[in-house]
Amino acid sequence: MERRVLMVFLSLWSSGLRAEHVSTAVPDDVRLVGGASHCAGKLEMKHQGEWKPVYDQYYDWNLRNAAEVCRKLDCGSVVSIQRTKDSSPTLDTMPFFVMYEPVEVIHSDESSNLEISCSDSVRLVNGTNLCSGRLEVKSNQSWSSVCEDDFDLQDAKVVCRELGCGGSANLQAMPFGAPVLTKEFHCGGRESTLLDCRSSATDTCSSGKAVGLTCSEPADVRLVGGASQCAGTLEMKKWGEWKPVDETDRSLKLAGDVCGRLDCGSVVSNRRREEISHGFMWRIESDCDESSLIKCSTKSVYSSSKLEITCSDSVRLVNGSTLCSGRLEVKSEQSWSSVCEDDFDLQDAEVVCRELGCGAPSVLQGALYGEMQALVWTEEFQCKGSESVLLDCGRSGSTKNTCSSDKAVGLTCSEPDDVRLVGGASRCAGRLEVKHQGEWGTVHNDLWSLKETSVICRWLDCGASVSAVRREDSSGRPVWLINPLCVQSKSTLRECVTSKSSPSDSCLEITCSESVRLVNESGPCSGRLEVKSNQSWSSVCEDDFDLQDAEVVCRELGCGAPSVLQGALYGEVEALVRTEEFKCEGNESALLDCGVSGSARKTCSPRQAVGLTCSEPDDARLVGEPSRCAGTLEMKHQGEWRPVTHWYSKWDQKSAAAVCARLVCGSAVSTNIIEDSSYRLVWWIDSSCVQSTSSLRECLLETDVNECYTGLRVICSDFLAKPIISLSPSIDGVSEAKQQGPQFLRGSNFTIRCSVEPQYQGGMFQLIFTTSAAAQNYTLPAVNHSAHFLFSAADHTHQGDYRCVYHVYVFSQNFSSESQRLCLYVAASLTDLIIRLFVLLLAMMSFIAGICLYFKAKRGQDARRTLGSVGGCDGWGVDEEAVGGWKK
Q1: Three-state SS at 829
Q2: C-alpha angle 847/851/854, rounded to 5°?
Q3: What distance in Å separates the CA atoms of residue 354 and residue 366, rounded to the nearest whole number?
Q4: pTM above 0.70, yes or no
Q5: What is the pLDDT of residues 612-627, one digit of tens each?
Q6: 666 and 695, same domain (yes or no)
């Protein structure tokens, strides 16, 4: 029988553990009844004037929720939360607390009450967990801090016990956050509550600091059935019950947390043991980031497996980046000590690496993972190298008293040989197999992308990732489940194996390039080129690489044609530089198939390493609309076009914007998820990946899910074709100036035509005419996808820039697209030219006449001036009588 019951929404997760600053998330009408005080008992809520019990049938309450109830009731810290069976609830009196959203509740006779115990008079606030914080004591209905001077370790043990935490305690000073209690406690250490201790009055607090207290977490995890407390089946205690743990998403991280909580060494292995479960188990939330595992646990009713963990008993590597690296520490007499580098050699390191389930030691260097801690191992190990554990090795008889602080053993073991590609043409191609728990098996995961493939290729020291496809598999090998997000973030694959899956008829086939890769890239098709030769990777000098070489590399990597070839585009050249020049013809399958120069090159400028950008392959499109920039997203993968649907993360405007950018279609205008009734085979895509990479194909997920009911519709800003602007000249003609553009003669008629390729019906055209002084607009409806703007008697006012803008209403929005600019000039007519020529000739004739008159007048003046000078010059003049006589 189903029935919708009362829903009360709580926002407890965001409240944290800071009692003074949390939001009031729990309703005012809650109470605890049936306990020793108002701070303990069965949880009830008042609804419509009636108190009703709160049941916990489907949502699993945890200590954080209970802590909020304690705070609301002005009690102290939460001590415990339990469920007590109630076999006879009635539906009309069954309130139900849920988080975030309503649910349909099916009634069951196995419903249980929630019983919460809060401390009456003590609490820890502003801590990192429920067992740490500044101590406050309730007296006279108010909370007060306790002076550090008046509190010792015995007092602290009583508080830790009262709060249901572990027995060990650590004291530290904290700033006051409340009034100061004027009491000094004198606990014997065995009291049940702090207020049971003797106390005396005090007036001052000389230190000016409050008590900060950290209790150990309660013993809530254990390993049972193994050779020691550091190995066995994981069990967790919650609500007073020890139950096995079922966990599927992050088993190796969980194993590391458990080893640390049990004060064991590093995690060696974890495996899932199939077993039919009778009753419920605890399950660890995969996305929980709490320091206490119990806060992350929920109830798992149905499970067929248990988790077995093995930790090293007495060695661990700390501060390392992987499970196989870190500063070496050894446990002796319940304390951990660093090991001095002087007392440790390669044979000792081999034993440690073997004990931790790692490969052979690769780096042994002092202070590599932090300086020596306070405790130092005082004996020298004398291992032969064949021992199973370090403490089985012989040791020197004398102890060492000193060791330089920067010489703690820093050890890096190689990762175990736990991944391979088999059945391909080389070790860099084939079926992906992983070795886990000593057994090789294929990989099963529905959500595998090229990003994970790139990591696999890097681990195998192959080149770039080329493809990852799912193939039929009849090998009969075991199947391991892999968390793909873990693969991207971890440095070893064994950290990402979660469990053994049921047999599968498919496997993951990966292809990596063998000898070329692009590094420092923003996507799989760009980066600094490196070539592998003699088991080492070398950069290529730009002087020795041309476009034909680049075409071969892009083809080998499964990318499109090269678009950018530029030195130092993706970082400077590395130390190793290839010493031969490639001489490709452009049609080779791989770069190493190309010929090379006979002579070796010795030098290369450090800023001349080949930086190569290949275009992305034509593997994405938008279909279903008369535009390449609008429609339903489809992608080509494994040679097949399919619609795309998003996986897990939200598909939003940012994801659509990445698609538009990839298709060179401008920005995203709108996007939505549409129903797809065709039941077509689909590809899945990680929308969060789409927003962080330039390559869409990198975000496709290999999946066995082949049918989907939704598709992704994307509308980009450039989905409209650009209008075309053109001229229709009249009989007066039009000429084309060499650099200015079209010219019309003054007085002629002309028509500007705006048109667009057929995409959508209707719309209108706007003609924008711009001069240096003003702008004018003309508007006409689109008829047969065009409009004609007629202008008569052209004059200088028609000279300027013209642009066509097409406007149309589609997809419930107004859109527009603009044409290129047309520059129009108006030239003078033939009559104007004749008149101007005649005026020019008259002006020239007048100018010439004036010049002639000027020079004529000037010559006359010069002649008269010359005659006057001859008659007046003595000795040089002419004797008129003589002349006259001669004449005579």
Answers
A1: coil
A2: 140
A3: 20
A4: no
A5: 888 878 788 999 998 8
A6: yes
